[in-house]
Amino acid sequence: MNNRKKRYAINTALVLALFVVLNTLISVGVIDMYYEGIIMMIGINIILATSLNLTTGFLGQLALGHAGFMAVGAYASALFTLNAGAGLPDILLLVISLLIGGLMAGLFGVVVGIPALRLRGDYLGIITLGFGEMIRVLLINLEITGGPLGLRGIYPLTDFTNIFWIMVIVVVVIFSLMNSRHGRSIISIRENEIAADAVGVPTEFYKVFTFALSAFFAGVAGGLFAHYMMVLDPKKFNFMFSIEILVIVVLGGMGSITGSIIAAIILTVLPELLRDFSDYRLLIYAVMLLGIMLFKPSGLLGTKEFSFIRKRDKEDMKTEGLGGEE
Amino acid sequence: MEKLIQQLINGLHVGSIYALIALGYTMVYGIIKLINFAHGDILMIGAFLAYFMLSSGLPIWAVIVISAILCALIGMAIEKFAYKPLRNAPRISALITAIAVSLFIQNLFMILFKPDPKPFPKTVSLGSLSLGGIRLDGITILTIVVSVALMIALEIFINKTMIGKSMKATSQDSKAASLMGININRTISVTFAVGSMLAAIGGILFSMAYPLIDPYMGTMPGLKAFVAAVLGGIGVIPGAMIGGFIMGIAESLTKAYISSQLSDAVVFGILIVVLLVKPAGLLGKNTKEKV
């Protein structure tokens, strides 16, 4: 128990230190606007990837429409700030709009997740794919979302500080969930759904729950994205974008939260470095994905979690043992 | 009334192309349980090959034969290099590999031939028939005839020939099939070859109907054909045909009576409803998973 507390303390200290370092660098101007933008995008991508990892990595169900949930969240939260934004302090407005975005996306997650209950295997992938496409088509055709032109003039409510802390909260929530009894139930569905059902895990509940939660966080990421970009273009949330998020999860390792974080950093920075070769970016993506699948199908970290603290007490080993081996 | 019949004919036209492409999805899924996301891109390759051959003046029948054969080889190569190493891996890995192959092909073609659409040469100038107020384009008749003929040929191939029967056996139980002396690897290769051929021909027919080709052209028809395969019951060949026709007709009716923008949403909506009511698809058998 003592060891565990120590780990929490060290992790908290590391996160705080990272924040202080980045924040200082930004305020003294070592990190300029451009790099600050990249860091903010990294934060949003981390939320997206860890949330998709819930469904694809831990629940073991392929979801191909994550961009759709993000779009729902982005539009819902942007529409809220545009229509009800007057008078509220910025931070409160942001929090409420993110909650609204997340809840809307989560609601859609339940709606899509319930049919997914009745289907097994690849069908969830197909349904989410269809759903993602439907959302995109609806966004282009509805009046309230601005049609093909998208939404413009969204208030800029996000900055480095709030993206960073929201990201930390999301990661901590997902991490503690996956290390809880519920998390183990979710992982048991991935390992063998029929067996999990047989030993009394309410698989249907956990499938919908995980799916909706994953959608909720995607919606939160969408809300952050909307208030960072200030414009929403329905074309952004297409099938390819869902794939890009999936690539992050796969590269990091399906079932590894730290893997998703590392991969989100790599795959957000890499395209910026490859700016001069922008035509080749997706080709490089494809080759990378193929390479990972053929040579290391479990991704960079597999289902392991990366940690600075190696020593674990017995209790912790037991808690994480389930997801620990391949 | 005339408008309705006209739209139904248009629907049959596109639907028969979807059905042709859906056959490839359904055969591959039936045999190795993989959604071959690269299938739509084989269609695109077929159309591009045809574009270059037609531009160099080859006759249309030679163009179709050559691009079908080349696409068959490409399909087999994809299976050998990308899917075969993963045959025993978790299905999610194989699926992601298929997505990666699709991305790879699209972006390779985008770099090689630029993303801007190219006009597909007008090849066969068939006249059009007018019956009352209904117009029957030559190309429409040709497409439907070619598609239906190919589907019948495929049914005969699968039910009557040795290799076709071994495909059926492998899709039922590949382990038992291999114990009975069926060469599984060869059977899977042939499946990919046949599916890719049909996709190539589908691609050429598609480009004749919508004469603009670009590296991403395979995605949407590919997705819709896949939805058609799921709709009819994936793994079931007549199901793919029925699914294809339903999709085509639903799409053209939506375009005519509701909104051309919403046709994609309607198509996916139909899929979701069907999966809810009959998860195995229209002609699919419900199989219980064994413990």
Automatic annotation (TrEMBL), chain A:
<dbReference type="InterPro" id="IPR043428">
    <property type="entry name" value="LivM-like"/>
</dbReference>
<feature type="transmembrane region" description="Helical">
    <location>
        <begin position="12"/>
        <end position="31"/>
    </location>
</feature>
<protein>
    <submittedName>
        <fullName>High-affinity branched-chain amino acid transport system permease protein LivH</fullName>
    </submittedName>
</protein>
<dbReference type="GO" id="GO:0005886">
    <property type="term" value="C:plasma membrane"/>
</dbReference>
<feature type="transmembrane region" description="Helical">
    <location>
        <begin position="208"/>
        <end position="229"/>
    </location>
</feature>
<keyword id="KW-1133">Transmembrane helix</keyword>
<dbReference type="Pfam" id="PF02653">
    <property type="entry name" value="BPD_transp_2"/>
</dbReference>
<keyword id="KW-1003">Cell membrane</keyword>
<feature type="transmembrane region" description="Helical">
    <location>
        <begin position="162"/>
        <end position="180"/>
    </location>
</feature>
<feature type="transmembrane region" description="Helical">
    <location>
        <begin position="62"/>
        <end position="85"/>
    </location>
</feature>
<dbReference type="InterPro" id="IPR001851">
    <property type="entry name" value="ABC_transp_permease"/>
</dbReference>
<keyword id="KW-0472">Membrane</keyword>
<dbReference type="GO" id="GO:0015658">
    <property type="term" value="F:branched-chain amino acid transmembrane transporter activity"/>
</dbReference>
<feature type="transmembrane region" description="Helical">
    <location>
        <begin position="282"/>
        <end position="301"/>
    </location>
</feature>
<feature type="transmembrane region" description="Helical">
    <location>
        <begin position="241"/>
        <end position="270"/>
    </location>
</feature>
<keyword id="KW-0812">Transmembrane</keyword>
<feature type="transmembrane region" description="Helical">
    <location>
        <begin position="91"/>
        <end position="116"/>
    </location>
</feature>
<feature type="transmembrane region" description="Helical">
    <location>
        <begin position="123"/>
        <end position="142"/>
    </location>
</feature>
<feature type="transmembrane region" description="Helical">
    <location>
        <begin position="37"/>
        <end position="55"/>
    </location>
</feature>
TrEMBL record, chain B:
<dbReference type="InterPro" id="IPR037294">
    <property type="entry name" value="ABC_BtuC-like"/>
</dbReference>
<feature type="transmembrane region" description="Helical">
    <location>
        <begin position="60"/>
        <end position="82"/>
    </location>
</feature>
<dbReference type="GO" id="GO:0015188">
    <property type="term" value="F:L-isoleucine transmembrane transporter activity"/>
</dbReference>
<dbReference type="Pfam" id="PF02653">
    <property type="entry name" value="BPD_transp_2"/>
</dbReference>
<dbReference type="GO" id="GO:0015808">
    <property type="term" value="P:L-alanine transport"/>
</dbReference>
<feature type="transmembrane region" description="Helical">
    <location>
        <begin position="12"/>
        <end position="32"/>
    </location>
</feature>
<keyword id="KW-0813">Transport</keyword>
<dbReference type="InterPro" id="IPR052157">
    <property type="entry name" value="BCAA_transport_permease"/>
</dbReference>
<feature type="transmembrane region" description="Helical">
    <location>
        <begin position="94"/>
        <end position="113"/>
    </location>
</feature>
<feature type="transmembrane region" description="Helical">
    <location>
        <begin position="133"/>
        <end position="158"/>
    </location>
</feature>
<dbReference type="GO" id="GO:1903806">
    <property type="term" value="P:L-isoleucine import across plasma membrane"/>
</dbReference>
<feature type="transmembrane region" description="Helical">
    <location>
        <begin position="190"/>
        <end position="213"/>
    </location>
</feature>
<keyword id="KW-0029">Amino-acid transport</keyword>
<feature type="transmembrane region" description="Helical">
    <location>
        <begin position="262"/>
        <end position="281"/>
    </location>
</feature>
<keyword id="KW-1003">Cell membrane</keyword>
<dbReference type="GO" id="GO:0015190">
    <property type="term" value="F:L-leucine transmembrane transporter activity"/>
</dbReference>
<keyword id="KW-0472">Membrane</keyword>
<keyword id="KW-0812">Transmembrane</keyword>
<keyword id="KW-1133">Transmembrane helix</keyword>
<comment type="similarity">
    <text>Belongs to the binding-protein-dependent transport system permease family. LivHM subfamily.</text>
</comment>
<protein>
    <submittedName>
        <fullName>High-affinity branched-chain amino acid transport system permease protein LivH</fullName>
    </submittedName>
</protein>
<dbReference type="GO" id="GO:0042941">
    <property type="term" value="P:D-alanine transmembrane transport"/>
</dbReference>
